[in-house]
């Protein structure tokens, strides 16, 4: 086998590979000889079938394997000899002319093909001792606990029917049927039956619930309301609608009690136990948000420390995935780039920058993890799989088997675990300063802060 490099541009490499016909013939003969003791052919004793006869029967199918294995071995040798770290699987271009292919399959001509490679960039890991990040820390206040317990008490309280003929008041639960219309025409998703509406809960669009005050069971009303400009269904955002409403029942809420009985209703021994459990649950949410913001800071600074060429195919694959999601979401929401205050060209450039950042940071984190010998063990993978399987009640076994049988899917489970362990490692090298903040500040993104300043 002879491999000659023909292209070396950035991270792209290309080789012309020539495997002599004699080498193919030797491999074919060796493979056919191995078949002698395995095949049973009428008229011949086991192991006595002439090679010429085996060649007529199996030569072409065996040569397909010979060519495939030869190409794989040649590519592996190129990678090994040049100490390449591949970004993608090699792209092989075999002869296309029929006569050339036939000659190779009969071992009468050399196998000549090209193989294109993309290699990973080489870069030195930066010193992180100068990196400074701020970890926002928020305490769970008594007021927040009281608010959470009040919400739970509201969810747990009972409702009883109002006296016959009584009118609905704020706080009552009204059961209704409705048909929504825009410009006199019903719209998709605008119809409901036996829908409970708690007046004042804010669960419906602004202005809807208040118009039910004073209604009685059996009443029919036309409720007029306007969808918010940022409504999640873009086709309805900002539009005025009318709802033909039929009131079917009116219920008055029971007394709001925050006591030991509330704790017991949620499986706790008493109110104090429930309070502690809520504090822990809210604390987990606070810690997770603090971690997200800290990680974003770290990755932002990490991104600034590295500049190197990126494998173009990796970037394109990342962009294709991101762009498909963006376009799909806009299609479902029936929105255009103009609705988003941009153009397709500007959006394309922005999402390509995002894709390049993701690939760059992915390569940096992988290199850091490799140098630090960070591993993801089987127990960590198992815990992640169990958690993922729990998201599909009744299908746990099927989910488990899917990941066990699909290495690529299993790699998707491993990747975020590995990334978090690398981030933990990086945080031991950077200077981390804790900053006490309020709940509101903790859950405000940096983009929102910048927008508020502007």
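^ structure tokens above, recovered residues below v
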């Amino acid at each position: 086998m002879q491999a000659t490099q023909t292209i070396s541009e950035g991270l792209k490499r290309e080789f012309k590979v020539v495997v002599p016909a004699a080498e193919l013939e030797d491999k074919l003969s060796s493979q056919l000889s191995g078949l002698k003791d395995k095949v049973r052919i009428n008229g011949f004793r086991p192991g006595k079938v002439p090679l010429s006869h085996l060649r007529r029967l199996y030569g072409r199918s065996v040569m397909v394997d010979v060519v495939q294995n030869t190409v794989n071995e040649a590519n592996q040798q190129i990678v090994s000899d040049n100490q390449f770290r591949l970004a993608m699987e090699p792209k092989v271009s075999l002869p296309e002319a029929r006569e050339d292919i036939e000659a190779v399959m009969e071992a009468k001509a050399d196998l000549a093909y090209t193989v294109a490679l993309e290699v990973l960039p080489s870069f030195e890991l930066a010193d992180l001792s100068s990196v400074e990040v701020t970890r926002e820390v928020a305490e769970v206040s008594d007021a927040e606990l009281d608010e959470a317990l009040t919400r739970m008490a509201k969810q747990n309280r009972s409702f009883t029917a109002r006296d016959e003929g009584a009118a609905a008041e704020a706080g009552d639960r009204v059961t209704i049927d409705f048909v929504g219309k825009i410009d006199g025409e019903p719209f998709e998703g605008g119809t409901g039956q036996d829908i409970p509406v708690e007046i004042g809960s804010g669960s419906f669009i602004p202005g809807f619930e208040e118009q039910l005050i004073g209604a009685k069971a059996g009443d029919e009303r036309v409720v007029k309301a306007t969808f918010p400009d940022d409504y999640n269904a873009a086709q309805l955002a900002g539009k005025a609608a009318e709802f033909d409403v039929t009131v079917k029942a009116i219920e008055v809420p029971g007394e709001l009690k925050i006591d030991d009985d509330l704790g017991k209703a949620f499986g706790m021994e008493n109110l104090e136990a429930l309070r502690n459990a809520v504090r822990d649950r809210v604390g987990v949410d606070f810690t997770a948000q603090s971690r997200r913001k800290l990680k974003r800071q770290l990755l932002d600074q990490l991104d600034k420390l590295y500049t190197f060429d990126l494998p173009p195919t990796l970037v394109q694959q990342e962009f294709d995935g991101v762009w498909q999601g963006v376009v799909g979401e806009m299609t479902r929401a029936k929105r255009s780039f103009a609705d988003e205050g941009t153009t397709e060209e500007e959006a394309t450039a922005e999402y390509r920058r995002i894709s390049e950042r993701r690939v760059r940071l992915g390569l940096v984190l992988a290199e850091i993890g490799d140098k630090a010998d960070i591993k993801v063990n089987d127990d960590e993978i198992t815990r992640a799989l169990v958690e993922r399987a729990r998201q599909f009640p009744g299908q746990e076994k099927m989910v488990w088997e899917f990941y066990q049988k699909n290495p690529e899917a299993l790699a998707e489970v491993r990747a975020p675990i590995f990334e978090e362990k690398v981030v933990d490692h990086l945080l031991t090298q950077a200077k981390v300063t804790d900053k006490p903040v309020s709940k509101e500040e903790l859950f405000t993104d940096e983009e929102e802060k910048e927008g508020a300043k502007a």
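The chain has three domains: 2-118, 158-254, 286-453.
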